[in-house]
């Protein structure tokens, strides 16, 4: 199929460090590949030596890495140029951007209008929340966690197999207070990517 | 949050332990949990994540992640049988601690682990 005839979909994954972003991205990228469509993953890790990129390569996924900085500040122009290179050289149906857990999505979203390539057919922001640590994080890192919720189209409350009912309820209430427009789904990444969640992440694939 | 520093630390290591007495998963979890416990002993430390990827000869991998020493570590992947060595990439992303301190904590935890379990941990980068 000539992908260049069609636009490209972009999914920006945000969420604090350790919330489980990679655990959703890997099965999503595999599902896209299984449907004979092209997914490219841009991984931003703030460490000098990435781990998620190595793991994704190990699993034969198409990965481009932005290391040793954050795409919400020092690497924001690198993100835009990487998406443009991907569009020109690989023509993916879906670009998944995994931002570092320390990234403020507001700054990332501000950089994306500088992208010049095939038009984006859709652009959605997914925020992954860890209910086990949300209460603590929202106290000590209020602006970052608030922004990660505020800019999400879809919030996934992850790890519900480990969290108490109170912790999950607190997470859902917090999202409702900060971003009442966001869709909220509660799940855990240890199970298969449910069809309902899959259709939220990539409705064009169904 | 404004005054909580974030100085990520990453390192590549080569581990050699006797395959006869070694449960690699236990060993890596123990290493990461020791680092996490030591970090949270310092005031104002917030763990982002402490994550390791072990690559075994032959293509198997084990990924271990700790975000709180009081919670079970997350483990993915599989360990091949009779394996004597692995390459490990470690990321320690903690707020509130300087990089030099994190490096020292990580290094001391590796030295103690190697001594206790009679193996070798060589830092490559």
Entry summary:
The complex is a heterodimer of chains A (206) and B (125). With 206 residues, chain A is an alpha/beta fold.
Gross morphology of chain B is globular
Low-confidence stretches of chain A: none
- What is the beta-strand fraction of chain B? 25-35%
Sheet/helix structural class of chain B: alpha+beta
CATH class of chain A: Alpha Beta
CATH structural architecture of chain B: 2-Layer Sandwich
Total number of helices of chain B: 2
Number of domains of chain B: 1
> How far do the termini of chain B sit from each other?
30 Å
Global mean pLDDT of chain A: 91
Widest beta sheet: strand line-up of chain B:
4-3-2-5-1-6
Could you explain how this protein is built, in words?
The complex is a heterodimer of chains A (206) and B (125). With 206 residues, chain A is of the alpha/beta class. Chain A has one domain: Rossmann fold (3-Layer(aba) Sandwich). Helices cover 38% and strands 20% of the residues of chain A. Chain A has helices at residues 21-34, 52-58, 76-89, 105-111, 134-140, 142-150, 165-178, 195-201, and strands at residues 8-14, 39-45, 63-67, 94-98, 120-129, 154-157, 183-186. In chain A, strands 3-2-4-1-5-6-7 form a seven-stranded parallel beta sheet, sandwiched between helices. In chain A, α7 links the parallel β6 (154-157) and β7 (183-186). The longest helix of chain A is centred in the N-terminal third of the chain and has 14 residues, at 21-34. The radius of gyration of chain A is 16 Å and the shape is globular. The two termini of chain A are 17 Å apart. Chain B has a single domain, classed as Alpha-Beta Plaits. Chain B has two helices and six strands. Chain B has a six-stranded antiparallel beta sheet with strand order 4-3-2-5-1-6, with helices on one face. Chain B is globular, with a radius of gyration of 14 Å. Chains A and B meet through α2, α5 and α6 of A and β1, β2, β3 and β5 of B.
């Amino acid at each position: 199929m000539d992908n260049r005839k069609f636009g490209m979909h972009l999914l920006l994954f945000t969420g604090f460090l350790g919330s489980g972003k990679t655990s959703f991205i890997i099965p999503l990228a595999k599902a896209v590949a299984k449907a004979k469509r092209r997914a490219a993953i841009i991984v931003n890790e703030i460490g000098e030596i990435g781990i998620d990129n190595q793991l994704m390569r190990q699993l034969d996924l198409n990965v481009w890495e932005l290391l040793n900085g954050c795409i919400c500040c020092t690497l924001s122009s690198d993100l835009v140029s990487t998406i443009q290179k991907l569009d020109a050289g690989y023509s993916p149906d879906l670009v998944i951007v995994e931002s570092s857990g320390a990234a403020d999505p507001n700054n990332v979203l501000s950089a994306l209008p500088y992208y010049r390539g095939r038009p984006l057919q859709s652009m959605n922001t997914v925020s992954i929340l860890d209910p086990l640590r949300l209460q603590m994080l929202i106290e000590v890192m209020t602006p970052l966690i608030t922004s990660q919720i505020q800019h999400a189209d879809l919030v996934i409350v992850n790890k519900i197999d480990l969290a108490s009912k109170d912790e999950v309820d607190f997470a859902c209430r917090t999202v409702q207070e900060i971003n009442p427009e966001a869709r909220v789904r509660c799940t855990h990444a240890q199970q298969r990517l449910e069809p309902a969640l899959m259709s939220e992440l990539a409705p064009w694939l169904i | 949050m404004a005054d909580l520093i974030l100085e990520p630390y990453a390192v590549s290591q080569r581990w050699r332990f006797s395959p006869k007495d070694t449960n690699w998963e236990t060993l890596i979890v123990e290493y990461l949990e020791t680092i996490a416990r030591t970090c949270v002993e310092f005031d104002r430390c917030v763990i982002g994540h402490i994550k390791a990827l072990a690559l075994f000869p032959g293509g198997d991998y084990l990924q271990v992640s700790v975000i709180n020493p009081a919670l079970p570590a997350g483990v993915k992947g599989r360990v091949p049988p009779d394996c004597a060595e692995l390459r490990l990439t470690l990321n320690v992303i903690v707020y509130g601690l300087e990089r030099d301190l994190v490096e020292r904590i990580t290094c001391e935890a590796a030295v103690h682990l190697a001594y206790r379990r009679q193996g070798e941990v060589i830092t490559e980068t």
